[in-house]
Amino acid sequence: MAIADLALKDAVASSEGRKDVGTENTPRRRTDDGLGPSWHFWKRRRHVVALLAFFGFFGVYALRVNLSVAIVAMTSPRKETLKNGTTIFITDFDWDSKTQGLVLSSFFYGYIVTQVLGGWLAGRLGGNTVYGVGVAATAVFTLLTPVLTNTSVYLLVAVRVIEGLFEGVTYPCMHAVWSRWAPPLERSHLAGFAGSGSYVGTVIALPLSGLLASNFGWPSIFYVFGIVVMIWFFIWCKVVKSGPEEDPNISPEELKYIQDSMGNIPHKDVKHPWGKFLTSPAVWAIVVAHFSENWGFYTLLTQLPIFMKDVLHFKLEKSGLMSAVPYLVMAIVLQFSGRLADCLLVRRILTTTQVRKMFTCVAYLSQTIFMLLAAFLLTPAGAVTCISIAVGLGGFALAGFL
């Protein structure tokens, strides 16, 4: 069953007031796969998939945020000593704030176009295939970025739009992967762990980009991350299959456990009820929740290094480091927010609907408070602390609506 069908089934069940997975009115699903302690991840192929998906999202976000730091180096004056001993200050690109905003936002013009298309392609070609191609293509265009940037700013804008088109398929494809690989009562923590790779990638990419730019020049940012992601792509293609039944290395116990938890539902020829999607209040609630989360998240993701430099007056290396702190907090929160959500379901403390609503609403209300405080506490310590808490609390929202 495609992830869209699972979501619609949950939405219909909730709207009709029925109890859903993990409640007292449904049989308790098997939660032990018989493969020993949960930390033996290498024995479970679904955990190997989650680990590689983690590094995939790591690469996706490293490729996405590197420009946020690179543009600071590209437009900041730097000292250069001429042969006669004269010291001058030069910039590689004399872009005004409007041009910088266009460059930073151009990625999302492409990103928004392929969201639904990515999910549709994943259903036809396999989520693992489309996900891998999307990430790899982004890496290839990242490697081309320095050459194209030195030619024209408009070529930079164009290449970022193209990168957005390819990265736009990644999250929809991963939903398709989990619809095949993740047992329902493990879905929150498997998806949460894999998704946390994006925040770990941000944590590492932001300060590392600053160090690379300071020591080797801004083009090195794009070369290093592009090569690393291409290495990941070859490993992903070799290891990950579209479903557990196609993996020759999965144990019979794990295959049976996953199939039993899924109900052995066939995945071919899925028909998507688009009309019901568009008229479902639950679907639109998730759309609004996701819009709200992304509004704040991507604004910070693209503008935080510039904010750290221009408003809080951090140097380039420290700007990248301090910009990474909020995403480190979120990566940590995600490690237990998903497990907490699944635990509440397995122990039948709350229904699926109650867990999703509570996690989303509590996180959003708390984020609102701390983002408002950050707008008034413009000291470096106060602003970084408030922004870090606000972004970190988003980990609970992702265990809700996502």
Number of helices: 15
Order of helices and strands: HHEEHHHHHHHHHHHHH
Structural class: mainly alpha
Strand order of the largest sheet: 1-2
Oligomer: single chain
The N- to C-terminal Cα distance equals: 18 Å
Biggest sheet, in brief? 2 strands, antiparallel
- Rounded to an integer in angstroms, the radius of gyration calculated over CA atoms is 22 Å
Could you list the spans in which at least 5 consecutive residues all have pLDDT below 50?
A: 1-28
Strand-residue proportion: under 5%
What's the count of strands? 2
Mean pLDDT: 82
Task: Please describe what this structure looks like.
The chain is an all-alpha fold and 402 residues long. The chain contains 15 helices and two strands. The chain has helices at residues 3-15, 45-75, 97-111, 115-125, 127-151, 153-167, 170-181, 187-216, 219-239, 252-262, 274-279, 281-310, 316-346, 352-376, 380-398; strands spanning 78-81, 87-90. Strands 1-2 form a two-stranded antiparallel sheet. β1 and β2 form a beta hairpin. α13 (316-346) runs parallel beside α15 (380-398). It is globular, with a radius of gyration of 22 Å. It starts with a helix and ends with a helix. Residues 1-28 have low confidence and may be disordered.
Features:
402 residues, disordered N terminus, 2% strand, 73% helix
Task: Give a short synopsis of this structure.
This protein is mainly alpha-helical and 402 residues long. It has helices at residues 3-15, 45-75, 97-111, 115-125, 127-151, 153-167, 170-181, 187-216, 219-239, 252-262, 274-279, 281-310, 316-346, 352-376, 380-398, and strands spanning 78-81, 87-90.
